[in-house]
Amino acid sequence: MRSKVTLARLVRNPQARYGLLALVLLLALAYLGPFFGPYDWTEKDFMAFLSPPSADHWWGTTQIGQDVYAITLRGMQKSIVIGFLVALVSTGLAALVGAAAGYFGGWADKALMWGADLLLVLPSFLIIAIISPRLKGGSWLWFVLLLALFSWMITSRVVRSMTLSLREREFVLAARYMGIPAWKIILRHIVPNLSSLLIIDATINVSGAIIGEAALSFFGFGIQPPDVSLGTLIAAGSDKVTGYPWLFLFPAGLLVLLVLSVNLIGDGLRDALDPGSNK
Amino acid sequence: MMGAYLLKRLVSNVLLVAIAASMAYFLAATSLNPRAKYEGRPTKVAESVIDATLDDYNLNDKTPVFERYVTWASGVVTGDLGKTWDGKSINDEMGRRIGVSLRLLLVGTLVGCVVGVTVGAYAAVKQYRLSDRVIGVSAFVIMAVPVFVLATMLTLVAVGINDTLGFTLLEYTGEYNPALSGWDQFTNRLNHLILPTISLALGQIAFYSRIQRNMMLDVLGQDFVRTARAKGLSRRAALFKHALRTSLVPAATYFAFAFGTLLTGATFTEKIFGWHGMGAWLVDSIHTHDTNAVAAVSLFAAVCVLVAGFLSDLIVAALDPRVRVS
């Protein structure tokens, strides 16, 4: 079985092993950690403003008395959710658009690829920065959609060119002559055959989205208060970094560890799924 | 042939810049609200006065957006980028800020490319030795650290060093100390450049070193390098004249892409180190609802990306004889 071989290769790959281990630990910290902390992320301790890490407040407190441990883990949860959702949506979009463009060809291909080119040219940072804080309701799900909307184009071009060759293969032709509708062929026969490319792409997209979220939130264009994410926490902490470094170091350190572990898994996956590539 | 090809690319790129800048203008003009800056003032201003002022600056949201766009675009074509929300000339402000940003971008690009390519080539020659592994792991870690984290860490380190030494060895805010003059002023400016350059260049170095190492490894095993050695060239000459030059071609094609990330990175470094450049202006102008300033910075960014893509083509043409001949 191919999937078994891949899995064995993945486990044997030290990069992927350490990356997976680190990611599991970070996920555990984000989702189980809050249960062990002495404070809730909404609580404010009016006896301790900007106090350094101590036995009571493990990672210190903010200027309004929030517990940095609790609020950082809360922000990390949001960053993780955003990372995975954006990766899912953008890789899904890339697969569907690329496969449809390659499979149908003709004007559909031209229109879809023109759209992809247009999105590549547009200044995505500016567009998300202007639109995202102004969306009615300010739901962070809109922000996820915007981030995903600007990150699928290059992969969809790769998917398209691979679909062009898959389209002529016997099993696709057989399915077509049996009268199976086009959308079913795309979903059942073309996309699964691109799975290794898509899995690698999705992994890379996770770390890209986590950094993208933090970058936009750093300027106040991403997650809006009262929601917190690693980006908003880093932004708040970097203002006071010289006097109160714990406000910055904990969220920034977790962000780097998160991105690093996902990148390690991505690299390991590439080695395991795509032995021909030289990284 | 080459000239015709470059001309064609130039035309299509100018078109793309025009589209990108126009999109940015429409987006900014429809979603930003400069009127609020006037209505929110403590002393109430009559609506007709606000309208007249906004009309004067071409910012009135009561004018149809397309009409405002035509006014803006005809100004841009003749070299007038319009007025800021409080009536200052965008051209003047931009002239000041472009110098600041270009200094940062130029030094960052140069240091990033040169050091990155050198480090990558070195790692390839020392493949699987300790130095190669150290370079590889460091590049991997650096690429996981976003610019804003790196820049803030550097200020933290600088403050720590300055505090232990008892005097300011490393400057970490602003572009220069206006109290100094002459030679002191110059060295002070250089000192202010150190930290922003490091924070911009480190990511670039990591990126280029990874690409350059892979490309160099591809080339090192090929016949023409062996031939060069066989005909009596020294190892050094074979590496520099044949292997390095050939392996630079693919790295040069990534130049435009890397410059794009550098441009975004410069926004963060400018904000964090207190430089008043174009990137800081973009962020500030979105916060202050300054439509024309947003459009001007977008135009600048689009032109920068165009120039980088163009340069990338030129470098490839200069390095790769096949491109020049065909």
Automatic annotation (TrEMBL), chain A:
Q: What is the lineage of its organism?
A: Bacteria, Bacillati, Actinomycetota, Actinomycetes, Streptosporangiales
Keyword Aminoacyl-tRNA synthetase on entry: no
SUPFAM superfamilies (alphabetical): MetI-like (SSF161098)
Extract the InterPro entries matched here. BP-dependent_transpt_permease, MetI-like, MetI-like_sf, OppC_N
Q: What is its main location?
A: membrane
- ABC transmembrane type-1 domain ranges (all copies): 80-266
Q: Do you know which PROSITE patterns this protein is assigned to? A: ABC_TM1 (PS50928)
Kindly list the GO CC terms recorded for this protein: plasma membrane
* PANTHER family in the record: OLIGOPEPTIDE TRANSPORT SYSTEM PERMEASE PROTEIN APPC, OLIGOPEPTIDE TRANSPORT SYSTEM PERMEASE PROTEIN OPPC
Gene3D superfamilies xref list:
MetI-like
Q: How would you describe this protein's topology in the membrane?
A: Multi-pass membrane protein
As for family, the record states: Belongs to the binding-protein-dependent transport system permease family. OppBC subfamily.
User: Which chain regions cross the lipid bilayer?
Assistant: 20-37, 80-104, 111-133, 139-159, 197-223, 243-265
What subcellular locations does the record give?
Cell inner membrane; Cell membrane
UniProtKB keywords: Cell inner membrane, Cell membrane, Membrane, Peptide transport, Protein transport, Transmembrane, Transmembrane helix, Transport
GO BP of this protein: peptide transport; protein transport; transmembrane transport
Could you identify this protein by its name?
Oligopeptide transport system permease protein OppC
Does the keyword field hold Transport? yes
In terms of superkingdom, the source organism counts as Bacteria
UniProtKB/TrEMBL annotation, chain B:
Q: Which PROSITE patterns match?
A: ABC_TM1 (PS50928)
What GO biological process terms are annotated to this protein in UniProt?
transmembrane transport
Q: Which GO terms describe its cellular component?
A: plasma membrane
Q: Which family does it belong to?
A: Belongs to the binding-protein-dependent transport system permease family.
Does the keyword field hold Transport?
yes
* Membrane topology of this protein: Multi-pass membrane protein
Fetch the InterPro entries from UniProt: MetI-like, MetI-like_sf
Q: Where is the ABC transmembrane type-1 domain?
A: 98-312
A Pfam family cross-referenced in the UniProt record is BPD_transp_1
Q: What is this protein called?
A: Peptide ABC transporter permease
Kindly list the places in or outside the cell where this protein is found, as annotated in its UniProt entry: Cell membrane
What are the transmembrane regions?
104-125, 137-161, 251-273, 293-319
